[in-house]
Design brief:
125 residues; elongated; four-stranded mixed β-sheet; single chain; mainly beta
Length: 125
């Protein structure tokens, strides 16, 4: 009887640890800059997220698809229920005018380990 009780307690302990995890939820996944002139080619966007899990959220890496897009973020863990931001700076200077769409890959310790964010817009001559 003691063995059965011990096994049940072990399974309950493992199940509770497995369900304890961070989770990241962004307010939006895409930001559209609209139309802007090449003479004023620098744009900024902020993506806000919430840790909807029950463990601290750690952003491990944020990588843009090209050098014209530079992400920045706070490296401190985000407590459950708290918000954080990822700031994006886009510089279209020296790029061809027209429509663009760039991706930003966010890697974290969340249940969903990788999330892609997008910025897009139309740069005119």
């Amino acid at each position: 009887m003691k063995k059965i009780l011990m096994i049940v307690m072990l399974f309950v302990g493992v199940a509770s640890v497995a369900s304890a995890q961070a989770e990241i939820r962004f307010d939006k996944l895409t930001h559209n800059f609209g139309t802007f002139p090449e003479s004023n080619a620098t744009r900024e966007a902020t993506f806000t997220f919430t840790n909807t899990g029950n463990q601290p959220l750690v952003i491990n890496q944020v990588v843009a698809s090209c050098g014209c897009t530079v992400p920045s973020y706070d490296k401190k863990p985000i407590a459950p229920g708290q918000k954080g931001t990822i700031d994006i700076k886009y510089n279209g200077k020296g790029k061809f005018p027209g429509h663009f769409k760039k991706s930003i890959t966010v890697r974290s310790n969340a249940k969903t380990e990788m999330v892609r964010l997008y910025i897009e817009g139309e740069m005119t001559e």
